[in-house]
Inverse folding.
């Protein structure tokens, strides 16, 4: 190989290593810059991981944020019948407010019963439902979700 081409190849290799070194140096600087922690402020639409409902009103009272988690089950024994919050099957125990409806019972995982019964949710309408006792409802686990089957056989 002629000396001119060899020198050109050496320059390309050296330049490639220099570019790689500069890119790695930039990444190292970016990684070493400390992240600014977002403060806990109510009504900013954020709930940073270090905040709780007591320090930031945007945070839920619990980290369980959906009914899918509350209704999850492995077998029928995991489920219990409860009154729907505000009589609405779409309300969860960590909602701030919910539109009222007229359902009498729903099924949730029994591990969530204390949080469910202790929920403080503002119902947007009066809850008007003439319901029988929850013991009259049969619940089951269907496809990993607690469901209400209707009245229990007596």
């Amino acid at each position: 190989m002629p000396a001119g081409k060899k020198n050109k190849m050496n320059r390309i290799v050296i330049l490639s290593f220099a570019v790689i070194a500069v890119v790695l140096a930039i990444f190292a600087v970016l990684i070493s810059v400390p992240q600014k922690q977002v403060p806990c402020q109510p009504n900013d639409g954020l709930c940073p991981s270090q905040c709780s409902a007591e320090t930031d009103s945007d945070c839920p009272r619990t980290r369980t944020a959906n009914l899918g988690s509350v209704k999850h089950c492995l077998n029928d024994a995991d489920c219990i019948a409860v009154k729907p919050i505000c009589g609405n099957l779409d309300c969860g125990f960590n909602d701030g407010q919910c539109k009222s409806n007229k359902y009498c019972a729903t099924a949730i995982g029994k591990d969530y019963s204390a949080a469910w019964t202790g929920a403080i949710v503002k119902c947007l309408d009066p809850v008007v439902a003439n319901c029988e006792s929850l013991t009259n409802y049969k619940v089951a686990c269907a496809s990993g979700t607690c469901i209400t089957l209707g009245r229990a056989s007596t």
Remarks:
- The mean pLDDT is 82.
